[in-house]
Design goal:
With 70 residues, the protein is mainly β. It has no helices and 7 strands. The chain has strands at 3-6, 12-16, 19-23, 29-32, 43-48, 54-58, 61-65.
Length: 70
């Protein structure tokens, strides 16, 4: 585990060397990797913007995941 962050919605973001995991309350874990659009699998930090977009800081730069429904 490289980072842990609570989401604005009360979920949990977990950055690892193998990707970015997200666990929403009452839901199964989701995994986001390079094949899903990350610039690299190694995620060192996660930041949520006021717009609801999520930024993953990886070994190869910053990747943005747009909030669903936008």
């Amino acid at each position: 585990i490289l980072c842990l962050r609570e989401s604005v919605a009360g979920g949990l973001w977990v950055g690892t060397a193998s990707g970015l995991y997200y666990k929403a309350r009452g839901q199964a874990w989701e995994l986001f990797r390079k094949q899903d659009g990350l610039s690299s699998n190694g995620v060192h930090d996660v930041v949520e913007a006021p717009t609801g977009d999520t930024f993953a800081i990886t070994n190869r730069g910053v990747s943005r995941r747009r909030k669903q429904g936008r």
